[in-house]
Amino acid sequence: MDDLKNKTIYGLVWSFVESFFTYFIQFGIGIFLARILSPKDFGLIGMIAIFIAISKVFVYAGLGSALIRKKECNQTDYSTVFYFSVFVSFVFYGLLLLLSTGIANFYGESILKQIVQVFALGIIFDAFGFVHQTKLNRDLNFKLQAKISFISTVLSGCGAIIIAILGYGVWALVMLNLLKTLSTSVLFWVFVKWKPSLVFNIKALRELFDFGWKLLMVGLIETVYRDGFYLIIGKYYSAAQLGFFNRADRFQAMISENIARLIAKVSYPVLSKVDDLIVLKRSYQKLVQNTMFITFILMFGLAASAEAIILTLLGENWSESILYLQFLTLVGALYPLQSLNTDILKVFGRSDLFLKLEIVKKTIAIPVLIFCAFLSIKILILGMLIISMLSCMLNAFWSSKLLKYSVLEQLKDIFPSFLFAIIIGLIVYLVGYLIEIKPLFLLLIQLLLGISLVISIGEFISQPNYMYIKTNLVKVAKGLKNKI
């Protein structure tokens, strides 16, 4: 139990280090580019997001999760998945080349033809590093991933900024993606001591795909659902409107999706190795409590200071994103919990149940959200919030069947964190509402106030999640200090 706890904590620390520094840099790059480029430039990239994302779903095909879950993987397994992924990446790149003219005509933006043709090269670059990253995840080597991610982010960011300054507009965003995927894959090949052998085993692929195809379908459904918003907004509104929505969505996703990603990257391989149901439930329960404590605080803090953040970092030209961001933070606040509950289904090997659950949820969600999108973008976001709450309940219900951790237990476990965070968020928002000063100074005041409230109230009432996180962070810091 202690070994499991230590692996999880140290894994989470390195994942947090990777996410924090990488996304802090990406955040800064995004802000710099947003001040040079127009909302339309970001909207153009948003228009092709669904086509790139669907292609990557087929390239990965759920095989990364299958490799992680398999008790023992050999060179044949890894090599087979590598060649399969690379082959599929070339197939889908070819398809996108053929579809590029149709995509441009669909949106009425001729430049999209060239953007698709160049941007889609990132699919091939990603495929070449896919197995290397999966191997690092399986081995819980998040320290090396953090280094690679940091280097590739800096390189791609510098390249994109130079292109933007030279006046190439949307091509700066295209190069940002290409340089990131290319440099990441190159660094994986340089630092990860694994190379594919000249072997391809159909039997091994079939065994892995028996688990992975269901995750492929889940990923496909989720991608169409998530990025379909961009397609609808881009088609029936304008590239600029899509740009406003995209920036707000990226702000909230920087917290919600990255918390879900870094937690899943550590928890899935760790929990997959646990055979004792009691230990599994106890570990998972603690993970839910602490994950949602952090999520609620960050997301409600983001909503409370949305106006100051947008005006300070992006400028007045992006003010239309403020309300979008405030609503989207409520949607994103539940995403890590949804992700945790679906990861449990994978831990138990129930990718079939995962797929059925996604089909049910999206069958309900897609017609509702398409209807909302035709009314207005604000009503679309409101619909997203309602669907997010419904999805959260359904995920929790089915995972509770396997783990004996009921929906009511989960709600009881996260409610104190919700209450703690909502009180702090309201105070921070009221301060911003009552004080009229420059956005930069207001943002600094709100940030310092939020941090002070979390620490002071957490210490005063000895909030369990706050105390647990504080204790383990101190322990990890001492451990790292002793190693140094």
Query: Largest beta sheet, briefly?
Result: none
Mean pLDDT: 82
Distance between the termini: 26 Å
Name the structural class: mainly alpha
Compressed to H and E, one letter per element, the order equals HHHHHHHHHHHHHHHHHHHH
**Total beta strands:** 0
**Large-scale geometry:** globular
Tell me roughly what share of residues is in helical segments: over 70%
Summarize the structure.
This protein has helices at 2-36, 39-47, 49-60, 63-69, 75-107, 112-119, 121-138, 142-165, 171-191, 202-236, 239-271, 277-304, 306-313, 321-332, 335-347, 351-375, 377-403, 407-434, 439-461, 464-483. It is mainly α and 484 residues long.
Describe this structure in words.
The structure is a single chain. The protein has 484 residues and is mainly α. It folds into two domains: 14-216, no CATH class; 237-484, no CATH class. It has helices at residues 2-36, 39-47, 49-60, 63-69, 75-107, 112-119, 121-138, 142-165, 171-191, 202-236, 239-271, 277-304, 306-313, 321-332, 335-347, 351-375, 377-403, 407-434, 439-461, 464-483. The relative contact order is 0.11.
Topology:
Blueprint: H1 2-36, H2 39-47, H3 49-60, H4 63-69, H5 75-107, H6 112-119, H7 121-138, H8 142-165, H9 171-191, H10 202-236, H11 239-271, H12 277-304, H13 306-313, H14 321-332, H15 335-347, H16 351-375, H17 377-403, H18 407-434, H19 439-461, H20 464-483
